[in-house]
Amino acid sequence: MNRWLIVVGREYKTRVRKRAFIISTLLGPFLMVGVVAAILFIGMSSTEMNSKVLIVDHNNLLTYNMPGEADVLLPSCQECFPERIFLEYRFASKALDTEAFLESEFTAMIELDDGIMQSAKALLKYESPAPMKVQSAVKRDLGEAIERLRVKSESTLDYDTYKKLKVQIGLVTQNIVTEDRNIENKSVIGFVFSVFMFMFILIYGMHVMRGVIEEKSNRIVEVVISVVKPEHLMGAKIAGIGLVGLTQIAVWSLLSWLLFLGFGAYAETSGLLLKLMGEQGSQVGATDFLTFIQSNEKLGVLLQVNWGMMLGWCAFFYLAGFALYASLFAAIGAAVEQESDAQYLLLPAMIPLMFSYVVNIFIIESPDSTLATFCSFFPFTSPITMMVKLSVGVPWWHVAISAIILIMTVLLMVKLAGKIYRTGILMYGKKPSLREMARWLMYKNT
Amino acid sequence: MNDTPSLELFDVSKRYGTHIALDGVSLEVPQGSIFGLLGPNGAGKTTLIRMVAGITAPDQGSISFFGEAMSSEHISSLGYLPEERGLYKNMRVGEQAMYFARLRGMGKKEAEIELTDWFERLEVDGWWDKEVADLSKGMAQKIQFIVAVLHKPKFLILDEPLSGFDPINASRIRAEINRLRDEFGTTILLSTHDMSSVDELCDHVALINNGKKILEGQVSALRENARAGRIELQFRGNLIGFTAALGAGAILHEALSLGDNIHDVVLGLPPSIPIEKFLKWATSEVDVLSCTPKVVNMDEVFLHAVNSVSNTDPS
After folding, report:
1. What is the extent of the structural domain holding A254?
2. Which run of H or of E encompasses B284?
């Protein structure tokens, strides 16, 4: 046991003190926030280019001729077409032909006819597609203008009264048993967990394989297994490297939490919070960050997730799922002499991992489907699928069965992989076939 | 010295699939000896060594260590230097040596003292904090040797310990091997192809071929045996007359005329004729200049053994 711990210690220490590990562990959360910020920034900067939209109104449906200037049209409802940084409107009574449009300053052109009152549809012509942000602004602006007309022509209400009466229902969903709310948003959190799960299992699983190949190819393994049993060496390697991954998960969780709180404090003191609330049109007079998050429809889920439970199960499913795949990778590493020879064996081992990752996209859509249930029990997919299941709420017995199946499979797998490892690690020369490796399983325990 | 052999193999066999790597080998390694394990490539030496090092177990037969069945209890009394060897690239030299010392059950303090001593002895002090990648091949081999012997094992397995060393360092390592035996009474199982190191180091040897032991014994006795009564005689006189006078008793193996009627001959004497009696007769026939038992080196011992086995064994 003592020797085993010494091996675990070496596997752990030599990895966590590597510069690459320290940097990626400390900067990981910042990098991720940075990437998200960069995407948002790029998305925003793409709309910096001003769009000029020409609205062609043959019949003065929404416009009137400026007195004295018959050629100039003005919108009847000035406030319906506000000036925006990224969008300007011009009005005309005649459409431009294609050539004239291409030569003009306009980026888009909309021709109105009377039909719009019924169909509520308009045709927007462009040379290069209008950004989504512009399109939705145009939709809103035109919509309001048409709505005003309709209210005026078909009712006795004034528009402000109409607006007050108008209702838009927000749907809050709740599980009748668990009383969990808005699981759709929560499943996104589960999905993020499962992406990390996939990443960690794969990255650190590869570490195990590389470590085994290193020991085998430089023959150091002979010295070590003259002291520690081969199966124990394999187990120690998996445990040591598994702990490295767990360390990174723990540091990332802690840093992300601090980053979240830090951002909150910054937002509160810098006035950013007020700006954010203004944009959101929030009626809640929140002065602190957490209340703001809570009141936000999308972000509110951050406070509804049971982080303790999620992180706890994440640690469990990571360790078990990692042990499962890492023992496979260790057996593969033991069978070959260099990394390039491992490819043909790696592919079959990675298929279930890839499968569970891809299938997750469907599982977040419907976490209760048969596929999801199957994947949450099947041990090679459950570590990843269960993250989504757990995030949306799952009965305790479901978790228990999944965990038990997984643990049993891990025990079996470690045993089988240990047999292949023990034989393979001392074999040099030719690359073994899968059939040969299967035969190693039959070798006596020596 | 205790009579219990430090290592005893009894009827040990090992097979891999259909290949028989070792076939009923029995061996006794006396305590405090330097025991040479010899044999051509693929003879089964590595298989045997791996079993003694505790890496694999025999399919059949038993291995005992100082009179006890081999077990994990013996790990700290064993040292092992495999033939093809390496070090962890991502660890520093001292830290690496420390790791193996602790795996063999040494405490940190004790390991540090021993390591400092060995590093000085093999002139690798100052390398403690170096990266393994910066070591030359010879340096790395010294570290590997230190790692194998650091914990003062009672039983040390060295697989080709001198390969790759330059002559100066090879003789230094040879001296250390002798010192381990003389100072600490370490028993050393030494596997090698290099017959000169057997001649210089080993007091006992065993020869393995095709998974079978074909020879075992004390080096001096084996030499005597392989000499098969041969002597080297230098004389002045008539070679033909001398040969004719030998009669049926002795056999002439080689003859070399040095000129001036001086001849070098190798003669085989039957056990019935002691060398003194022969010499008495010879001086009466010719002018004997010198007479010595034929010096047989280990190469000849083994060629002799391998040939006699393949002559008697049709397989």
Report:
1. 182-440
2. helix B275-285
